[in-house]
Design brief:
mainly beta, Methylamine Dehydrogenase, Chain H, 4-stranded mixed β-sheet, 3 helices, elongated, actin binding, WD40_repeat_CS, repeat, cytoplasm, Coronin
Length: 576
């Protein structure tokens, strides 16, 4: 209770006794959980389990399917006969030592001694072990007060004991005799299904978690209407209302895969894993990748992506930065220029020779001075060359003109550590989120004071932000007061109104790093030390976040960056 992960294990009498099959992440925290009886499963869709999750505001069905090539036939191996609904004995008989199992006497009397009304229906149905085959299962008349459209009627009796005959009227209480309603009266498994055969390998990651909506919304996923006549006179016709289908992402079936090992850079040694949480840890462009090393003096390895494979065991040429590296980034308009922020409050600009590093670089192209304390984040301007922005523990954000080698503007207004900053796609605005729980929006060409402010994430452990939906919205990742990681969506022109939507993901110590693809509106989220990458399509209309397939790697991430879009293999529909 209180968690948002459902784990599914296979239990075996031999070792390993427990084998994890899959896991499902839900949107809301679990307040209660109940399994739906097997008679309610959609066996023709190979649904082997359905649970109902109780959240703070909804009752959410979660369905588990076993993938099979054919869904037109009944799979006996998945669905053995299950227990029926009539007792084998009564309470007095059990106390007297009767331990008989439920079975059917064709004269209409159970072996346990409880009389039932003889009829052709009972004689044709195996009450003790009921078949799940649709053609052989008993008539479905189960009702539930939580399912829309299944309303029982009183047919001249009020008895509630299973299989009990009302002696005064001779009428059999049929609503407890014949099992459960069809699966469509609970939920459409296809609308909220978790595949039990989902691979956990690096080539595909987990299958997508079920879409967690209210019960009425899931009922509407299939949007079908049906009416059923009263089978034994005990019920009137049942009508399932036609409901609108909930939205789903166009990219919900996206699959992440690890490229062939021949394209990997391996045998990396002495990497620095102590860069601040505000830094991505390393950076890459189309040609090369820069990696801080643990060696003294702030050494940085620069490796050519055009030369993948195993690195030699000997030392490779490096950049001698002269101070421990806090953050680093490539110039988007000059693939040979690398900006490095040091813990000595200086920014150094390095120019990589054509063809890559052949010898150690010791002299930077330029050094920018102005901050009074450690710098922990730097970003190039997205549309103008020679413009760089930096943030520091001195609680200032400074904009630098690199061609002149000087500071041109210092943005004020922060009262605590600045966790993250991001230029808008058009380069007109700069957004920041800080430890004081505020999001600020600047227009540097108009004022050095924030133009807007709004409430940010509650927790003070860290936060990141990125512009989404054409620059009209801000997505912020952070923590709540209970250290749950969550993402928040803000309208950029109305920060003071607070977030439009808040989505809790999980509980973990590292800040989620968001990477946004403008072409598909898909945001990728992961943290240092995580093995899972969350994917959501972000939309400007409710529900705002549409879940896509996540990706799971075999080893925890030490860092995570995205290559420019031009690196994608479009012929294989690769988009990130």
């Amino acid at each position: 209770q209180g968690e948002n992960l459902l784990y599914c294990f296979e239990v075996a009498p031999t070792q390993p006794a427990l084998t994890q099959v899959t896991q499902c992440r839900t949107e809301g925290s679990t307040r209660g959980l109940a399994a739906v009886p097997r008679l309610a499963l959609d066996v023709m869709a190979c649904e082997v389990l359905r649970v109902l999750q109780l959240t703070d505001t909804a009752l959410v069905p979660v369905s588990y399917l076993v993938p099979r090539k054919s869904v037109q036939e009944f799979h006996e191996d998945l669905f053995p006969d299950c227990t029926g609904m009539l007792p084998a004995t009564d309470a007095q008989g059990w106390w007297a030592g009767d331990s008989q199992q439920v079975s059917v006497n064709r004269r209409g009397v159970l072996a346990g001694g409880i009389a039932t009304a003889p009829c052709s229906l009972l004689c044709s149905v195996q009450v003790g072990r009921v078949s799940l085959h649709p053609a052989r299962r008993p008539t479905e008349t189960f009702t539930s007060p939580i399912i829309a459209g299944t309303v029982p009627t009183n047919a001249g009796h009020t008895g509630t004991n299973a299989g009990h005959t009302d002696i005064d009227t001779g009428h059999t209480d049929t609503e407890q005799t014949s099992g459960y309603s069809s699966p469509s009266s609970l939920a459409s498994p296809g609308s909220a299904a978790t595949s039990l055969s989902a691979s956990t390998g690096p080539s595909s990651g987990f299958a997508s978690s079920p879409s967690q909506k209210s019960l009425q919304s899931i009922l509407g996923e299939r949007a079908v209407g049906w009416a059923r006549g009263a089978p034994l006179g005990g019920f009137r016709a049942l009508t399932q209302p036609v409901l609108a289908a909930g939205p789903s992402s166009r990219f919900r079936h996206v699959q992440g895969r690890v490229l062939h090992r021949d394209l990997h850079l391996t045998n990396l040694r002495g990497l620095s894993l102590t860069t601040p949480g505000e830094s991505d840890g390393f950076c890459a462009n189309l040609q090369r990748v820069a990696l801080p090393l643990l060696s003294a003096g702030g050494q940085i390895a620069v490796l050519e992506l055009s030369k993948p494979g195993r690195l030699p065991d000997v030392a490779v040429p490096t950049i001698q930065n002269g101070a421990a590296v806090a953050d680093l980034t490539w110039d988007p308009f000059n693939p040979r220029r690398l900006a490095v922020a040091g813990e000595d409050a200086k920014i150094r600009l390095w120019r990589i020779p054509e063809g890559g590093l052949q010898e150690t670089l010791q002299e930077p192209e330029a050094v920018l001075r102005g901050h009074t304390e450690k710098i922990y984040s730097i970003r190039f301007h997205p549309t103008a060359s020679d413009l760089l922005v930096s943030s520091s523990y001195d609680m200032t954000v400074r904009i630098w003109e690199l061609s002149a080698g000087r500071e041109v503007l210092c943005l004020q207004g922060h009262r605590d550590q600045i966790f993250s900053m991001a230029w808008s796609p058009d380069g007109k605005k700069l957004a920041t989120v800080s430890k004081d729980g505020r999001i600020r929006l600047y227009e540097p060409r108009c004022s050095c004071q924030p133009q807007q402010e709004g409430p940010g994430p509650e927790g003070g452990r860290g936060a990141r932000l990125v512009w989404v939906c054409g620059g009209d919205y801000l997505l912020v990742s952070g923590f709540d007061s209970r250290s749950e990681r969550r993402i928040l969506l803000y309208r950029a022109q109305a920060l003071s109104e607070g977030p439009l939507s808040v989505l809790g993901l999980d509980v973990a110590p590292s800040t989620l790093l968001p990477f946004y693809d403008e072409d598909t509106s898909v945001v990728f989220l992961t943290g240092k030390g995580d093995t899972r990458v969350f994917l959501y399509e972000v939309t400007p209309e409710p529900p705002y976040f549409l879940e896509c397939n996540s990706f799971t790697s075999n080893e925890p991430h030490k860092g995570f960056v995205f290559l420019p879009k031009t690196a994608c293999e479009v012929r294989e529909v690769e988009f990130a």
